[in-house]
Amino acid sequence: MEKILLIDDDEGLIHFLGRFFQRKGYEVSACLSGRDALEQIERESFDLILLDYKMPDLNGIDILIKLKKSQIKTPVIIMTAYGTTELAIEAMKRGAYDYLIKPFERKELSRVVSEALIVNRQMKEMVSFPDSSSRVLPDSAKGSLQIIGNSKKMQEVYKLIGQIAEKDVPVLITGESGTGKELVARAIYHHSGRSQKPFIAINCAAIPDNLFESELFGYERGAFTGAERTYIGKLERCDGGTCFLDEIGDLSFPLQAKLLRMLQEGEFERLGGSGTIKVNVRMLAASNKDLKKEVEEGTFREDLYWRLKVIAIDLPPLRERTEDINALVDYFLSRFSAEYQKSVHYIAENMRKKFSSYSWPGNVRELENCIRRAILLCTGDIISEEQFGFLEPKDEHHLQSLNRDQLLVRLRDKLEDIVPEILRLSKEGIHANIIDMVEETLIIKALEECGNNQVKAAKILGISRNTLRHRLKKIADK
Ligand SMILES: Nc1ncnc2c1ncn2[C@@H]1O[C@H](COP(=O)(O)OP(=O)(O)OP(=O)(O)O)[C@@H](O)[C@H]1O
Ligand SMILES: [Mg+2]
Predict the structure, then answer these.
(1) pLDDT in tens, 51-66
(2) pTM to 2 decimals?
(3) Taking CA atoms, which of 113, 240, 343, 406 is between 20 and 30 Å from 285?
């Protein structure tokens, strides 16, 4: 359970926030004064701190300075009253993660808090790899992740990480989806001289083009309609730290130019701002696309490519390092059986053989999900073939040999795969009714699939023909 510390002398607000977060499933502690808070933070570690600016003993900035001096990585969100935006920005310069202007709305509060908790996890969860000196971070009570695999190809990857982590140069990490690019980026961060500074990941594919610049560079109040407060962009928050540009291959051409300019000059302006802002940020980028090919085809800027690719790490697909599969299976077995409190320690030997001959199109992520699900379904202490019915077959004809339950698990797996992307897109302020959109898309595709035969389409969709007609009418009436 994630732990949030509230620091505010306003008991009413503490009460409201306490209930708000407890209902969301967080553990909450509260302090009514700055001094109490500092003592509490010394005794206990937290995942997030909400800190009021104006308090009778120490003000928010004094507390923040003390926290940063003792190298506590927990993100701090400063709360200030309306009209004190300058103070909030001052706090951000001193390392606060974000700020909230009182009175704030629940939606804004939830958004800022959930973003900050993700950053907290990424910064504190240490990622280690074989032979890496397991440096212990002062605030790293959050367990650790490991990069598993001793194949020759992975050893080369570890060697490279070891050589460049501390070198402060940009790194471009490539590899198919699920090969561990993000894990490698985090390992570089944890083993770099910037490990006590922020690590901020930006998923270029998830941010709509028109919001990308403001996310990255920030904006001044009034810069455009709807810009109600000054927003400090991700780059500015990351000053002194590491910025991970994930899915860089999905960045549009004009945005590539803007990013390049920032990288060349080391400075930028907030949208609608007049002063330049200088930041010192180490760039790590990742892509599952073949960027060299994109450069040749003219869809990725060559100058940006070379600037990001000072060092390149290419992660091998799992099918090219099948000797690592057993170790990965053991690692996920022990991780998930602990996480789900199950005592599953073995996997049927014939399954291990099948694993090595399978092609793993989704790479380590697919293997990870496969073991996680098997552990959840498993009732004894050994995982047998039964629990792997959902393993994606190489040959689609194989689908015919699956029973209904296995097909249902496959279907649910597929849905779980695509839903996060849909939610991510709609989270960016589209405010469309996605449930209707999903329904409409499913119906139209099903009809296309069976040449507009409504009886067949209804059967595929698992609804009656009448229901299908009814829904089609609803779509037509829109
Ligand atoms: N070598 C490894 N050892 C242990 N876990 C791994 C390894 N490689 C990947 N994983 C795990 O597999 C999952 C996918 O890894 P990650 O997110 O880093 O992949 P990715 O290359 O960024 O994929 P995508 O291109 O889809 O974003 C994560 O849960 C990660 O922890
Ligand atoms: Mg990734």
Answers:
(1) 999 888 888 999 999 9
(2) 0.78
(3) 113
